[in-house]
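Worked Example 4.2. Consider the chain below.
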Amino acid sequence: MKRIVLTGGTGFVGRALAARAARRWPGVRVVVPTRRLSAGRHLQTMPQVELVLCDVHDGAQMTTLLEGTDALVHGVAILHGTPNAFDRVHVQLPRTLAAACQAARVSRVVHLSALGVAADAPSHYLRSKAAGETIWRRSGLAATMLRPSVIFGEEDRFTNLFAGLLRGFPVLPLAGANARFQPVWVGDVADAALACLDPTRAILPVVECAGPEVMTLREIIQRVGQMAGCERPVLALPEVLGRMQAGAMSLLPGEPLMSADNLLSMRVPNVATHQHPGLSALGIQPASIDILAAHFLRQR
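Applying the procedure from the previous section yields the following structure tokens:
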């Protein structure tokens, strides 16, 4: 393994993956395409990581970038958007990248997908993710689909934003409070991706990345409150009010915490099905969400 291209490398999961790849394989070059070099400022201190100006949606640019590459890790995704936006990122982009990988003769691909994907899933997010998996599966490439539950870590937006909300409100009204997740640590997801790139390991078509505990959204937030020292009552909202809350959140500046499409996704349990190998098949013992306790303690 000499060269890896990592799409989505400037994001939360991508940064963790780049850092761990550099430690695991000191001689490997990790190439991160980006449209803005400033977005990768966290990676610029890593000598093995190379930021390259490139539009990942441009097939010709990606084919050139992938020449001489051993593996692609594809981590570009969106949680919110229109049906067209989901199609562009989760369906058309994998089609473009699959063609580029074929042309450049890339030997391995790891695609970050999600638990709960299905062609008949209730949300645009899950349906488009399923369609993206199908493209990789039909490409003939040696591809692994990583399907994580909700991913947590010190830099995540999920637990940190809820901790902020708990600090600011005496009671937290919550849509989808009883939705089930199996939160997984970002370090375990990164390690899983790298394990799937190991040329001595047989290809696993699908790996479910799930943590050690099945928790409702309410339980996750309550655990975050305990760790952050700001426990508050969580008020589960009925579906009608939940849709109103999601609609209001989607109008706030920046990336919304929740949207109507997210609520539809939460109708599907975001937990391991055990129909595919999990982290243990890669020799990974998943970490509990309690690993964040020290992080939240520093914020008190």
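The chain has a mean pLDDT of 93. The CA atoms of residues 180 and 216 lie 4 Å apart. Compare this with Example 4.1 before moving on.
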